[in-house]
Amino acid sequence: MNKKIEQTFKQRDVFFALLNQWRMLLIWTIIGAVVLSGFAIAKFFLKQEVIVRDIELTSKQIETIESNVNKENIEAIVLVEQLDRLNETKEYLSKRLSNSLYLKINSDTQPLTTFRVNVDLINNQNKEKEELEKTKRLILLEYVNFLKQDSYGNWIKFNTNNRINKDEINDLIEFTIIENDYIEVKLTAPDEKLLQDFSEATIKYIEKEFHNRTSFIDPVLLTIDNEETEFVSNPKILLDQQNVNEQLKNIIAEIETKEEELEEIYDQAIQQVKTVDSDGNILEIDSKVKVSKFDIVKRAMLGGMIAFLFASFVVAFRFLSSDKLLDVNSISKQTGIPVISEILIKSDQEKDKQKIGYSLDRLIDRKYHEIRSTTLDQQAEVFAKTISFIEGLYVKKSSTTSENIEMSIVGDFNNTNVKNTNDKIQNKLTKAIKKSLVEITTPIDNTISIKELLRTDFAILLLSPGHSCFSEIIRVLEVCNSLSVEILGIISLEII
Question: What string of DSSP letters covers 313-376?
Answer without folding.
Answer: HHHHHHHHH--B---HHHHHHHH---EEEEEEE---HHHHTTSTTHHHHHHHHHHHHTTSSS-G
